Amino acid sequence: MHGIRDAASLPRIQAFPDLRRHQRDPAQHRRARPLLLTFIAESDMTQLPLELITIKTDVVVVGGGGAASRAALSARQAGADVHLLAKAPLRTGGSTVHGASEIMSMGAAGYGDRKDSAEVHFNDTMRAGQGFIDPALVQVLAEDAPKRIQDLIDLGVQFDRLPAQPEEQSTDYKLIRSDFGTYGRAMGVGGRTGKAFVDAISDELVRTGVHVDAPVMLIDLVRDRDGAISGVLAFDGERQRLIHYIAPAVVLGTGGMHGAFQQQVSTAEMSGDGQAICLRHGAELVNLEFHQFGPALIHPYVQLFSKSCFILHPEITNSEGHAFLRDYVPADLSVEEVLDEKVFPFTTTNASRYLDIAIAREINEGRAGPHGGVSLSFAHIPEERITAVIPNTANWMRERGLDVRTGQFEVGIAFQCMNGGVRMVDTDAQSTIPGLYVIGELAGGVRGPDRPGGNSLAEGQVFGHRAGAAAGRRAAAAKASDAATLDASLEGIAASLDGGTSNPDLDAIEGSIRTAMQRHCLVEKDAAGLEKARSIIASARDALRDARFGPQTLLKGLSLRNMAQISDLVLDACLARTETRSGHYRTDYPETDDEHYLGCFVWKQEGDAVERDWKRF
User: FAD-dependent oxidoreductase 2 FAD-binding domain spans which residues (predicted)?
Assistant: First the structure.
């Protein structure tokens, strides 16, 4: 039997001989007898029991956002028994459900402009990411997106419509022409599009019998002797128990690394777990130096501020009351021109970059307000213009008791999304590890330095569906075999629960990581700042490597280890790309260098070393 061995083989971990790990049929969920792991502290011999239960299923999906919920539903529709694990309760975690802006939408050709097509969508996406993204993935994205829109309509999602159908459109849906898009093809739901998706899909996956296990954190992948996936190890922090899921197919949709930044527009439980765990198992990661960020309301609530908010020409001042933007804009440009050009996310490809640079530098140099941002005011803008230009933002604020014209707002530069991640090697979103599918913000290969607006939600739906369906097919064809790596995973947990004397201040370590990444890994980057951040992250990793946790702090401790590891790799990627390209702005290398850098870095761990390779799609 694989898994826990006797007490002699696991220092200070006692496996009670009269208890055994029991498999259970999913229908008999609560009848499993647990294996008790007992942590014995050397100092006082206090016993802190952990249970280990085993669940056998067909497909495990990890994550609670739009991509993961879609994958779980599609796997279930393919006939698989499915367990969905989420670090936060369903409908509360991840980028999709919390994403909100005036124009948050999903792009799909076929529901609007008669001249638009999947071919045009493909060309728009390739033009924005040429050399960095896989054309085969982009092709299925463009071809499948309209089908996934129809699925959402069938599930009851009410996309915004116009009073009458425009002559040039094939439907009366309200369409947005987003950045890098030739035509208007992005469809939204009142600025809260992602939440509408997750709510509709969650209702259906619960109705169809998907098992939702939340809050539960992914601890590790479990692989067989041939290196293929055979399940996962997870931790239920509320019940303080470990869960070994046996499954021949696993879909990861664990999201990005929002928790590594002080200012971010999603939920902090996304700490790079999936990226770090996949790296340790030898999966390939790409495009890690490219991530999306830009101006966002950070007080009294958090919400992205898109172009619509800035073309109103709000007043922006620092803590001294100074309207500072003019100080950063070249003499041949007006402040109004910069605001009119504003796009989200930050990019060096147009004049709007001066807004992001100015906000970030004012904050970094100590001229921020009490909540860490600069002041923004719409007080001088007529009510009717606000209603016409930012109706969704105005309604969103009104729901929270705020008035756009009289509210006191602070704006910062907030992390929004990773463009790189674990590389998808086929159009079903399989990673370089057999049986492991990667989707959503975790995945890499379809997002480069730039991408058309509306693609993010489309990617989650398209590849979530394809990964879930493929996982269901794999589960039907072959059951999980041995759990060759489980012992090592359990030994790692045993070591982390060891009764050593290390008791680090986890809040302080978390704060140091966030401060370093916010200061040195967003708008303006240079070698000195990136190296300083790496030094801070290295100290955090050293403290966490030697740390020992109790059951109550295990989840946070392991999350911080993952956060520190993936932060270090992102910094390494930013250092390696000695050029400026789109949102990757190196002040010490301000030019774009197509001769040497028109392609992506590929990162892979071999043993204890992480190696960098090169790939041009």
Answer: 58-457
